[in-house]
Amino acid sequence: MLVKAGVTLNPVHLAVAALAGRDDLLVQGKPVVKLLLTGSEVVSHGLPVPGQVRDTFGPQLLAVVEMLGGINGGQERIGDSYAEWLDGLADLPPEVPDPSALPADVVVTTGGTGVSDTDHLRRAVAELGGRLVIDGIAMRPGHPAVLAELPDGRFVLGLPGNPLAAMMALSTVGEPLLAALGHGTMPPVQEVPCGTTIEPEPGRTRLMPFRLLYGMASPAKHTGPGMMRGLASAHGVMVVPPHGVQLGEPVPAFALPWGPPVPAPAQPGTKPKSRPAAKPATRAAGKDAAKPAGPVDWSALLG
Questions:
Q1: What's the Cα-to-Cα distance from 270 to each of 219, 278, 279, 286, 294, rounded to whole Å?
Q2: Which residues, in sequence order, are bridge partners of residue 147?
Q3: Domains in the chain and their CATH numbers?
Q4: pTM above 0.90, yes or no
Q5: pLDDT tens, residue order, the chain (303 aa)
């Protein structure tokens, strides 16, 4: 055996195969992902005027998809009419075929996942004979996320129209989907100590971008569903359960595709780093010295 099954091929593997007279190799492919960006009010250049919204999906989604193991299958921009949605999902062959174009395994859409008369994703999927695999998730942001499967085997991942909500849906639904289709593995979910007390919100799991401050995960600022500033500076995302989290309590967290791994928790029995012996407390500091040691909420330091 020259190359074991399951390894990621590198250029030297290809050279070895060529030396053995193999012109072709059977490989496990990566999923091809096409973007279907919607919204008649969306503009892709300059500052939007009243009634317009600047495109935040076009500059980032395909790059994130590639980080998650997908192959860039191009993007198409449509308006808000049902006919445009139906044509976009039908994936009709172009009048002039492109031999280099790969058929999409996954279509990622933006917006249209709500339940109003102007949200057309579910209706279009139904008319094409598809089925809903996931129809909403009890989390914020990102709860209107939709995952559907069409009769031809393509998956449709419907992301909410708000940018942060869309990224959370891509991380929680899109990442495992692409990992499964591409025979990849998911990065582990780690636990990090929470840097502040987070109050309960019954019935809803919250995904909170965080920044590590003195080894503790403090919720980032500027993280409304339509905001990207907090995510841009975040070190990862906390998964806050409906019952909330206490200061210093471990909370599940996952890394961002473009960021470093979430630090693994200290193993039981690990010896802490030695510190210089504390000086005896003076009588003047006796009152403060009597306070119990414990975690400190540093989250107010975040800008």
A1: 27, 22, 25, 31, 19
A2: 134, 157
A3: 28-44+53-92+100-181 (3.40.980.10), 189-263 (2.40.340.10)
A4: no
A5: 888 887 888 999 999 999 999 999 888 889 999 999 998 888 888 888 888 888 888 889 999 999 999 999 999 999 999 999 999 999 765 555 565 567 899 999 999 999 888 899 999 999 999 999 999 999 999 999 999 999 999 999 999 999 999 999 999 999 999 999 998 888 889 999 999 999 999 999 999 999 999 889 999 998 888 888 899 999 999 999 999 999 999 999 999 999 999 988 766 665 545 545 555 555 555 555 555 566 777 777 776
